[in-house]
Input
Amino acid sequence: MESTNVYWTGLTPTFTFQLDSVYRVDDLLIQVDNNDEYHIEYSLNGSTWSPLYTILNTDGTVDYGMDTFTKADKPFSAVNARYIRVYATDGDGMNAISEVQAFGTGPVPEPATLTLLGSGLLISGVFRKRKESALSN
Output
């Protein structure tokens, strides 16, 4: 039977989830072991990371097992992200993640795409003005 979760001991592993494009992430559902601390970060390029939020080892409502968190539990402002990273930083050293779901809209155009689109529109406008000017003469 295939496992649908990960578990480990210690603080070394980092789990990175790559979305297929840049998305505006409005909510994140994550289920983690209840007595550990986890940091959730996001990135556009996979090398520069920003904090999304932290789950403290005192957060959550279950006494034993897995706790589920969403934006209702850990509020954050919507972000543009292509990568989401999760890692443990404290607790009993026996960590687990059983579910991660990102919700939002997308794909969001990347800055280079927007620049290219803007340049195309500007050039199109210049040609249109020239054509209108030539027709009026």
In short: DSSP finds one helix and seven strands in the chain. The first strand starts at residue 6 and ends at 9. The radius of gyration is 22 Å. Residues 111-136 form the longest helix (26 residues).
